[in-house]
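Annex B. Sample input.
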Amino acid sequence: MRDIQIRPARDADFNAMWTIFQAHVATGETVAHGGSTSREDSHEYWFAPSATTFVATKGGERILGMYKLQPNHFGRGNHVANASYMVSPNAQGVGVGRMLGEHSIEEARRQRYLAMQFNYVVSTNSPAITLWKRLGFAIVGTLPKAYRHRRLGYVDAYVMYKLLEDPARWELPEED
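Annex B, continued. Sample output.
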């Protein structure tokens, strides 16, 4: 993928991010956010204080996709990362999602997470499921009829998980 870079998101990127977000919400096929999600709520979601957000750009300017990385839980669960991804409909099928996925795994390792968990992967989102499996994630749970798909009605959602390093090397942190 020539001329595509992944960098930390800036507030100035949000107009393009909002456009991508709206496109995904409008389909009603892959994300839990509803059509009434406001611009402000979307901004808060992508730029939450607990999150590190990145964008994939072409030529340093055009936003092709984004992801956010954050703890899946607080306290005793904060060693497991969670991430959310969106790729522009105009950039799907050319490897941007894979680039974002690979980058997020490396970033999670850099931030010292021991694993990654996706809490809500819509079962009918075959491209995402295929990608996550190729990147080493496994389906560890099924949430029956948990997603209200715009065209198909109620469909399952998956919980997917990946260890980022050998658990034998993990050290427990000091008690807090």
